[in-house]
Amino acid sequence: MGMSVTISAAAEQDSEQIFRLQYLCFQSEAALYGNYRIDPLVQSLDSVRGEVASDCVFVARLGEEVVGSVRGHVTEDGSAAIGKLCVHPRLQGHGIGARLLRAAESALADERGATSFRLFTGHRSEGNLRLYRRVGYQTVGTSKGADGVPMIVLEKPAGAYAATA
After folding, report:
1. Which of 37, 58, 123, 154 could form a disulfide with 103 if both were Cys (CB 3.0 to 4.6 A apart)?
2. Is the CB of residue 140 less than 8 Å from the CB of residue 155?
3. 3-state secondary structure of 62
């Protein structure tokens, strides 16, 4: 009998598992850009703990194991910045990322008043771009990450979050 993946709000005790998962998951992004100083790989455990305490953070669990995570917070302009979406490599391609996005979007709109959602992904990250476009995000621009990686900026209105999944 298999176990199913559940999505729930993260708790402080999840911080270390999120930190380790993030480090594992973003190795492929770092390799894609030849840059192992990207933010998810250099973020400290204390910083992750701070985000879990203050931001809207969701995890995907398989039993007790955290196998996915996403974070978001509402910015001054009322949009929600969503980031660091990751799913354990062995479970990618099963809709967990879309489910995590849906949970974060729902909470950010319903509980924190977000009027739109914004996220960034590397310009070579085709799998990420496919997911984001499939769940309603549209490219609105480009930017350069603090680490120098060219990024694609995607957005969608908060009313569209119901379509994600």
Report:
1. 58
2. yes
3. strand
CA separation for the pair 5, 18 (Å, rounded): 15
Query: Is pLDDT above 70 for 163?
Result: no
Rounded distance between C-alpha atoms, residue 156 and residue 19, angstroms: 28
Q: Could you tell me where the beta strands, DSSP code E, fall in 13-149?
A: 56-62, 65-74, 79-87, 116-122, 138-144
Mean pLDDT of the chain: 93
Q: Which residues pair with 95 in a beta bridge?
A: none
Query: 60 and 96 in contact (C-beta within 8 Å)?
Result: yes
Q: What tokens were used for 11?
A: 């708790």
d(CA 152, CA 129): 9
Mean pLDDT of 120-141: 94
In order of 10, 32, 70, 99, 118, the CA distances from 113 in angstroms are 20, 35, 18, 20, 14
Res 148: pLDDT: 86
